[in-house]
Amino acid sequence: MKTTILIHCPDQSGIISAVTGFIHAKGGNIIYLDQHVAKQANVFFMRLESDFDDNTLNLEGFKNEFTTSLATPYQMQWSLHLDDVLPRMAIFVSKYNHCLYDLLSRYHSGELKAEIPFILSNHTDLAYIAEQFNIPFYHIPVTKTSKNEVEERQLELLKEHNVDFMVLARYMQIVGSRLIDEYPNKIINIHHSFLPAFAGAKPYHAAFERGVKIIGATSHYVTEELDAGPIIEQDVTAVSHTHTIQDFIAKGRDLEKIVLSRAVKLHVKRKTMVYNNKTVIFS
Amino acid sequence: MKTTILIHCPDQSGIISAVTGFIHAKGGNIIYLDQHVAKQANVFFMRLESDFDDNTLNLEGFKNEFTTSLATPYQMQWSLHLDDVLPRMAIFVSKYNHCLYDLLSRYHSGELKAEIPFILSNHTDLAYIAEQFNIPFYHIPVTKTSKNEVEERQLELLKEHNVDFMVLARYMQIVGSRLIDEYPNKIINIHHSFLPAFAGAKPYHAAFERGVKIIGATSHYVTEELDAGPIIEQDVTAVSHTHTIQDFIAKGRDLEKIVLSRAVKLHVKRKTMVYNNKTVIFS
Amino acid sequence: MKTTILIHCPDQSGIISAVTGFIHAKGGNIIYLDQHVAKQANVFFMRLESDFDDNTLNLEGFKNEFTTSLATPYQMQWSLHLDDVLPRMAIFVSKYNHCLYDLLSRYHSGELKAEIPFILSNHTDLAYIAEQFNIPFYHIPVTKTSKNEVEERQLELLKEHNVDFMVLARYMQIVGSRLIDEYPNKIINIHHSFLPAFAGAKPYHAAFERGVKIIGATSHYVTEELDAGPIIEQDVTAVSHTHTIQDFIAKGRDLEKIVLSRAVKLHVKRKTMVYNNKTVIFS
Amino acid sequence: MKTTILIHCPDQSGIISAVTGFIHAKGGNIIYLDQHVAKQANVFFMRLESDFDDNTLNLEGFKNEFTTSLATPYQMQWSLHLDDVLPRMAIFVSKYNHCLYDLLSRYHSGELKAEIPFILSNHTDLAYIAEQFNIPFYHIPVTKTSKNEVEERQLELLKEHNVDFMVLARYMQIVGSRLIDEYPNKIINIHHSFLPAFAGAKPYHAAFERGVKIIGATSHYVTEELDAGPIIEQDVTAVSHTHTIQDFIAKGRDLEKIVLSRAVKLHVKRKTMVYNNKTVIFS
């Protein structure tokens, strides 16, 4: 049984030794260990892939003992994931298809190891893609006055389908506070600029206007403040005076889909941890 | 005699044919022609390298005729440069030496084809480098109350040495308005972020705080508004949670010197044109 | 009527003036002019986008006069393309779908301005994609003994459909000499390494074995010598000791599709010229 | 007392737990732990930064016990480095100054934490730089017949100065077998191409001839086979048909110095391990 354990806690001497000793004592073989100390904040982070013999490991007992022996004394926040339980990911889209196609083709080829219980959109334009890939599609239109009901309906769907995290694949609506509260660091957005430059609407137009020589895309966890959540992944590409806004948009599409897919894959592999509105990425 | 001609004017049909026909009629051989139309603004830009027989070309006559036949009817702003007249470049520095060393080593190897009449600093820390390279060094300290005199003295030096353009190689003072007015699009700065992100002071600290995954550097012409002038060149490098602010600064130094040197070389080769606070770079 | 003219000829003084003067005299407005001189080989290249009044231009007359006045005296090889006549592109594939999907989604969105008369494969695996996009699909299996007939049948199809150029979107067969001869600089391949490193089979395995820190992809025109034709476009991505061969392959897929699509777009816009087994790319 | 321990051994269960438990038992605080398993070769690699109380640690006793308790049973190859003992680095150069300047300016600013007992060259051109930085300079000319004596003299100098590793900063001579044997994985070279492409002489000329769109530089450990040793670091930059061989060389210089300095810094921080002619880089 392969497991991934994520830990963060106040830094102090002896944590690595204590944790690895515990795993070893329980018959686990550590396959990979990543660790980081955020010096300024004095926080210790660890990600641990281990392999256990299925016949001998009592999962509940393991968790209880881990809590008593390690989590409580070291004040850890921690989680344990079984590698053969795939995370369940809902995709929110509007009208652009490039990010959706990219995610689904990686899903389809087995590169992106997640379940996709449904695709949700405020428009019907991309329903045909959901159909191509045989994934349920929900159309929840958004109007100025429907925001509360929309959020209610979204939450219902997420609960009903046991969704673990959401991907906003160029979903052109603001996500409501209740969703953000219920899914902290579990809503991944793609913004079409190298944040913090050009937050908000029409970043390619703003980049063109400013005359930058590089454009970018940023994938981040969604927080209350628009385009200000913890950054997971960024990438850029060169532009010049010869490019029109349309060229920026076309080049940007290639960035957006790659950057978003990279971020989603990191999340699915539990390689991201969040602290102080920043990410630790164990890549 | 090799020449470079830069032109910009309202776009209309027939300009290229008219200009190249004129050059040809004057016995010039066009070596390279670059051209661009900014569609939204309807502005035409051209850069033309030509070779003339030294014995037959009357330079004053050529300029007069160009004005009458082309510049006036097409409402051109234009300039003609002789390739063997090197532009005269003053370098302003404070205490950091990496950009200065980089520029001077390119100057010394012949890669950067400019004259350097002097280096100016508000500190004396880098005087030894000026001495190593045998270039006059002026120390003009800046205090809160001396700004006017400083600017006066700087202008005198620039005039006295027939300076064509200035490079702020991590000069940590605001350049005064009179200098900016007298040298429009002739003062090149390096800012240590991918503008417009992190304009102003301490960009690496701000980038660290924000948790970006990419840091950058931007070289631009100085205008009245801080860090908001036309961008000439930008580049970026990846960072991660493992990097401290000191690592950002060290990685940034490598970017700054390369980006600044690229921008200076483009300017020296007259490959930059400015319009609407943006650059056309004929690279 | 928008046109693109491509010219190459021995370099000499006055060509640009002669050509632009001719276009102007025929009532054409030059929209964009790109030009290059390969100094060592003394060859002049030009690409010219012009706009003509449809009512007054006699295309045959124009071509005849261009030949007499310019092409013959200057020994030009030249071609004229009407921008509203889309080039006809056949796609050859085997079993991998990522490049095919990428091309077709750009075709579908209007970003790739070409006709696609058919998709051809030596397998049937990707027939479903052709069906999704409503494009004819031909299955021509290849065996050791069928090579001649295969080539015969391919040529027939290409002729029958008036194909202008071919894209080998991870087509895992050697293309025959007759095709190469009949379509010189008109067969675009994607090779999954930064050529000339790792030419031939299994480049990701070879790259892994060698322990490189960067992998790449190269799009080039097909010539008789394997993976040795004129390079149109290359790109790379960083790898490390943490990546397996499977990771190399997954990262490589992202490179391959982007690099191939860029090359195809350059070809479709007639921005590529070939000389001495190298390309001039007017980007 | 800060220490860095490097370990590699056959992979098996329990190593991490055993090592971290040992360090903890000896009063050490593990600051950073990096680890990797090369699956195909079944080799385990670890790098461990630990902090010990200077008053209580008996270094010889620690080493003996580590050998008995861990190194012998786990068949480890291992080394322990004290962080305040700077490695001693000799620099070999010929006539190009860019890599030398870059290394020395990083050394001078404290970014490169090494001692530089001497600079050695087969020419006298760069003696002035050694003088600027106040570092002993040895001129050992190389002729066809002097190779044995040269190697003898080099070895003497290296021993005499207790050199830990060498950097070939564009040293244009083949290093002899005896040096390579005595300093395995301790001679760092910079090659001016993205290896394995363009190994050997004149790579920029070969790259120009081939018409590549990307050029690169590679830093690697020197082995008997020319340009075929374990790669530490690579980087690339875009080129186009507009660039001459001279442009390739100038762009390449910027790559070479940055890539070499990165590799040297990784080596100095003991972040490189070598196995099967490949590197593990704990960056």
UniProtKB/TrEMBL annotation, chains A, B, C, D:
Enzyme class: hydrolase
Pathway: Purine metabolism; IMP biosynthesis via de novo pathway; formate from 10-formyl-5,6,7,8-tetrahydrofolate: step 1/1
Catalytic residue positions: D227
A Pfam family annotated for this UniProt entry: ACT
ACT domain sequence ranges: 4-78
Gene Ontology MF annotations: formyltetrahydrofolate deformylase activity
Keywords linked to the UniProt accession: Hydrolase, One-carbon metabolism, Purine biosynthesis
EC numbers: 3.5.1.10
Highest taxon of the lineage: Bacteria
Catalytic activity field: (6R)-10-formyltetrahydrofolate + H2O = (6S)-5,6,7,8-tetrahydrofolate + formate + H(+)
InterPro entries recorded: ACT-like_dom_sf (IPR045865), ACT_dom (IPR002912), Formyl-FH4-Hydrolase_C (IPR041729), Formyl_transf_N (IPR002376), Formyl_transf_N_sf (IPR036477), PurU (IPR004810), PurU_ACT (IPR044074)
Protein family: Belongs to the PurU family.
Function statement: Catalyzes the hydrolysis of 10-formyltetrahydrofolate (formyl-FH4) to formate and tetrahydrofolate (FH4).
Family annotation (PANTHER family): FORMYLTETRAHYDROFOLATE DEFORMYLASE, FORMYLTETRAHYDROFOLATE DEFORMYLASE 2, MITOCHONDRIAL
Protein name: Formyltetrahydrofolate deformylase
Name of the gene this protein is made from: purU
